[in-house]
Amino acid sequence: MNIKILIATHKKYWMPEDDVYLPIHVGRAGKADLGYVGDNTGDNISEKNANYCELTGLYWAWKNLTCDYIGLCHYRRYFAHATSSSDTEKKKLAILQREDYEKLLKQYDVILPKKRNYFIETVRSQYEHAHNKNDLALTEQIVEELYPEYSEAFSKVMGRTKLHIFNMFVMRKEKFDEYSQWLFAILFELEKRIDISKYNQYEARVFGFLSERLFNVWLEKQALNTKEIDIVFLEKVDWFDKGIKFLKRKLLIKL
């Protein structure tokens, strides 16, 4: 199997040695060379990285990469065998390798991270509390205009409390190409209709945030045979800080 799992990164970092992984420098345009493949060659949107996040790497792969299967991980976050260890080296050993992907892809259409559960919020209300709710409403309108057959899926996903996040996946390249055509048509239209010039650095990542929700909408409509896999994060998570930020998002008025 010709499988390429992109590792989106913006800095030099430890990378798995398995050749199934392809580190890609996202937002490479105008930046110093890190020694990784850049997302600024061929047909690309590398200069939009501040707003599209890892999607600039996905766009590059859609337009320029040839393979049978494609996926996305992040430089600190990988699909992995279940582990409760807090030791970084043990976490690295848990990361899936080529043989793991080959086995899974013979059985499933798409490999996904386990869903995040927002518990007390729906996907819609969580976005509205964390980001600019008008952007989500306009995205829903654009989906209805461009792909009305996805409107029901959009409503279903927004009404749930669980969501696949991080834009992580592995699937056939032709299916990924179909998804990319759908996704970027929506986001490029949204980009024409909103003014993000006054957004702060965090909120300016609007298209990356929305793409996580849209990916779930696309999956809902596709009804593919999926497999959820554990995620390992190579650095320590400050849950107290995350909790404080969550409360701030709940209490503060957004843009």
Query: How large, in whole angstroms, is the Cα Rg?
Result: 18 Å
Stretches with pLDDT under 50, minimum 5 residues:
none
What's the total count of β strands?
A: 10
Order of helices and strands: EEEHHEEHHEEHHHEEHHEH
- Mean of residue pLDDT? 95
Query: Number of helix segments?
Result: 10
Q: Which bin fits the share of residues in helices?
A: 40-55%
**What class do helices, strands and sheet pairing give?**
alpha/beta
Give the helices and strands, then pairings.
Blueprint: E1 3-9, E2 21-25, E3 37-38, H1 49-52, H2 55-64, E4 69-74, E5 77-80, H3 88-94, H4 98-105, E6 110-113, E7 116-117, H5 123-130, H6 133-146, H7 151-158, E8 162-163, E9 169-172, H8 173-193, H9 206-222, E10 226-233, H10 239-251
Parallel strand pairs: 1-2, 1-4, 2-3, 6-10
Antiparallel strand pairs: 4-9, 5-10, 6-9, 7-8
Task: Please give a structural write-up.
This protein is of the alpha/beta class and 255 residues long. The chain has ten helices and ten strands. The protein has an eight-stranded mixed β-sheet with strand order 3-2-1-4-9-6-10-5. It has a two-stranded antiparallel ribbon with strand order 7-8. The longest helix has 21 residues, at 173-193. It starts with a strand and ends with a helix.
In short:
The chain has 255 residues and is of the alpha/beta class. The model has no long low-confidence stretch (mean pLDDT 95).
